[in-house]
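Task 17 of the worksheet. Students: predict the tertiary structure of the chain below and write it out as structure tokens. Keep your answer in the requested format; marks are given for formatting as well as content.
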Amino acid sequence: MAETPNSYFSGLKDFLSDRFSFLDNYNRFVKRDKPLPSWSESDVQDFIASDPVHGPLKTAREAVNYGIVGSAVGAVTTAGVCWKYSKSPH
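Model answer:
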């Protein structure tokens, strides 16, 4: 006689829980009893201002903006060069 769907899925669940048992190590971080509060932008700015060690994170955030602009300029320049030299000479 064929297995019932419930017994099949419980067997599959047991099999997968054995194979992925290392994920139980992360349950205390992922499945918390009391979730961490979300941070607003003002909380982040207060942390940057109050912490002298990690305060340079503000500089890193500003550097990200320069990196984004630089990558956009580089992409446009590369596309322009490719388009220029991909034209057929005849």
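Marker's comment: The mean pLDDT is 83. Helices lie at 5-19, 27-30, 41-50, 57-85.
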